[in-house]
Design goal:
Elements lengths: L1 E6 L6 H13 L4 E6 L13 H12 L5 E3 L12 H11 L5 E6 H5 L10 H4 L1 E5 L15 H8 L2 E2 L13 E4 L8 H9 L10 H11 L4
Parallel strand pairs: 1-2, 1-4, 2-3, 4-5, 5-7, 6-7
The structure holds adenosine-5'-triphosphate.
Length: 214
């Protein structure tokens, strides 16, 4: 099974890398594909441009086995809808099973995604824990009907994400890192170091760009 990890990565940080790698290991995924989006549908225009976000992602992920940066959303015009991305992945890898990995914060907004119910015809979903977001709050974020729809798909064990099937949702604990790109952007704007939150190759690049002297 291939793990799909989408995001804006504006910039990439350990809160992206470590949870994704931990799911790769826990579910014995054959590959992890990081997919940076071009025009995120649910947020403002990214802070860093496409080339910057991509080059930092390349630095961050260099050297990991079976971890790939997939540029298909960057090469596609229009908003980066995950349902389109999954369909094109299925075209490219018809014999593979896909699981989409998203943080609990993103899952809480999933019913606002374009054609969100179709996602479950295309892949399984793995929802990772994230500091500041509580599973018990999921039902507050959506209609009772949508919550029932999602609850019926939830499974307790990875073994239930069966090959050649789709549409199951597994909530999985991952290393808890209280980091966000938003916090990192704020630190950089104040000329503060972000070394603790990302691989040194990434923070070096950011330091050079933002002329931080530490
Ligand atoms: P921003 O602060 O700009 O909104 P972000 O740090 O949330 O950005 P994104 O690129 O929007 O990062 O997130 C991509 C994916 O990574 C999402 O599924 C999100 O839930 C997940 N994610 C981001 N940070 C963490 C974290 N610290 N722990 C677990 N998952 C995370």
């Amino acid at each position: 099974m291939i793990g799909i990890f989408g995001g804006t990565f504006d910039p990439v940080h350990y809160g992206h890398i470590k949870p994704a790698l931990s799911i790769k290991q826990a579910l014995n995924l054959s590959q992890l594909r990081f997919i940076p989006n071009r025009f995120p549908p649910h947020r403002e225009t990214p802070w860093l441009n496409v080339e910057q976000r991509l080059s930092l992602l390349k630095l961050a992920l260099k050297g990991y086995a079976d971890v790939v940066i997939d540029e298909r959303e960057l090469n596609r015009d229009g908003p980066s809808f995950m349902v389109d991305t999954l369909k094109s992945l299925i075209d490219d890898y018809p014999d593979e099973d896909l699981c989409l990995i998203i943080g609990l914060d993103a899952f809480m907004g999933i019913t606002t995604w374009f054609q969100w119910r179709s996602l479950f015809d295309l892949c399984h979903l793995v929802v990772t824990t994230r500091p500041g977001f509580n599973e018990s709050a999921i039902s507050d974020q959506m209609s009772a009907e949508d919550y029932r729809y999602l609850s019926a798909k939830m499974v307790k064990h990875a073994a239930a994400l069966r090959p050649r099937e789709t549409g199951k949702i597994l909530l999985k604990s991952v290393p808890q890192l209280d980091i966000s790109s938003t916090q990192i952007r704020a630190k950089l704007l104040m000329n503060e170091s972000v070394d603790a939150w990302m691989p040194v190759a990434v923070s070096e690049q950011l330091r050079a760009r933002f002329k931080i002297n530490e």
